[in-house]
C-alpha cells in the first residue's frame, strides 16, 4: 500500500535549494552543440515508425535545445498514446539516497544484523548467495567487491546493526558514486556518457550548505578515508553528485528500490502534467518510456520530476531544490491547477470562500480568499500544510479509522480535492476491500459506497493531472470496478435497482476493467501492476465482455 506524497530524494519519478537559472543557461548553451552530436542514440528504440516516401522510418523524436530547457526531446511526428519511445538499460544503478540498507545485487531490503547473509569477500550484506546481481554490472560487480574488500576494516563498524541511521544512510549514498568512479577506471565510454549530463555545478557551488554537505559527506570521505584521491579530483566528485541529483530516476518493483542514470531518458524535460509515463523492468532495471496521451508533432516530450499529486508550492520547491529551476508550466501558473483545485483551503474567516495562491509563480506571494478579505502569507500557509502533512504521515496506511478521522478533521480546513485529503483517500481506496475486517464480502454497503466515492474523487483529479495511459489511472480504475459491481448486485437483489440501472453499472464496470487492463498490461511482466492488469483482463472475460 502506498501514499502519493512524501518526496525523499531528488530522483525523477516517482525533493530544495535556491538558485537562479541564468548561469546554467549560458553554460548549457556553450556546450550544447558538441554534447548533442555526442549524444548516444543507440539503445533508444522507437517503435511503430511510419515510413516516409523514401521508405526511411521517421524516428519518433529528436534532440532539440532551448535556452529554457537545455537539451530536450521533441516529437518528430504525431505520436499516439501508448507508443514505446525509449527502452534502455541503466548506465549506472545503485541504492537511493536516504535509503535503508539494501542488497547491492538486487536492491531488496536487507538487515545489518549477524543473521544477514554477507558477501564472503567484502562483507557487505546481500540478500543471499544466489542473488542474481552478484558479479553483475547492474549489481555487486567484481570491481566494487575488490574495492570494498580492500577497505573492509574501515567499513566494518558501519555495516553492523549498531551503526546509527545517519551513518548507514551516508554509507549507502556513496555506493552509486563509487560505482561511477569505478566506471572511470573500467569503462571509459560509459563514464564519458555520464559526464555529458547536466550537473549544475556552478549553481550548486553558490549554495554553501549544499556544497559543504557534499564536500564533507562525499568528497573528503572518498578522497581521504577511502583513499580515492588519485582517481577523482574534488571538482569531478562534486560534478558526479550534481549529475546524480539532476538526472537520476528512482525505480524498483516488488520492494526493490534503486536510483539509475539512463543514456537517453534523462533528456526529457519536466512538466507537471507530462505527456509520457515510464516504468522499469524488474529483470533488467531497464526503463520503458511511453507516450501517455497523443502528442503532436513538434511538441516537447515531457515527464514529471516531482510527484504530480502534490500542490504547486511544494512541487516547485522540490524541483528547484534538486533540479535547480523554477517550473513555469501551465499547471504551476494556474491558481486552480488546471481545474483540480488541489491546493485550495477553506477560508478560515468567512468559511465559504476558497484560499488560493494570488501569484502561483511567486513562491512568497500571499494566498487570498475569493470571497472575503482574508489573506495568508505563503510562510504561514506552508507551516499549516506541513503540520497537516505530519499528521498524515503519522497514520499507518492500513489504519482505516485513523484515515477516516483525518478526512473528518480536515474537512473544515482543506477543500475536498486538496492533495493531502486525496492522499488519504488514495490509501483508503487501496485498503477498503483488501485487509482483514474490511474484505468486500464483510463490508457494510456504506463502507463499500465510501470506497466507490473515494475512488471516483481520486480518479477525477488523476484524469486532470496525470491523464491518459498512466499507472495511477489504471490502478484506481481497477479499485473502482469492485465496489460498483458489488453494489449493483446488492441493489438488484434487494430490488432497489431496475434492470436497466443494473445493466448501466455493469457496462461501467466492463469499461473500467477494459481500460485498466490496457494500461496495467503495459507494465513489465513480473510487476504487481502487470498482474493486476491480467486480473482485470480475466475478470472482463468472465463477464463475457
Ligand atoms: C534531467 S536534466 C534534462 C536534460 C537537460 N536539459 C540537459 O541538457 O542535460 C534536467 C535539467 O533540464 C532543465 N529542465 C528540464 N525541464 C525544464 C523545465 N520545464 N524548465 C526549465 N528547465 C528545465 C533543467 O536545467 C534541469 O535541471
Task: List the main descriptive attributes of the protein structure presented here.
single chain, about 550 residues, alpha+beta, Beta-clip-like, 3 domains, four-stranded antiparallel β-sheet, three-stranded antiparallel β-sheet, 17 helices, about 10% strand, binds S-adenosylmethionine, protein methyltransferase activity, N-methyltransferase activity, SET_dom, SET_dom_sf, GH17917
**Largest sheet descriptor:** 4 strands, antiparallel
- Could you estimate the helical fraction of the residues in percent? 40-55%
Structural class: alpha+beta
Distance between the termini: 30 Å
Q: In one word, what is the shape? A: globular
Percent strand equals 5-15%
Which molecules are bound in this entry?
Answer: S-adenosylmethionine
What is the residue-averaged pLDDT?
Answer: 90
In spatial order, strands of the major sheet run: 11-12-13-14
Count of domain modules = 3
Rg of Cα set: 25 Å
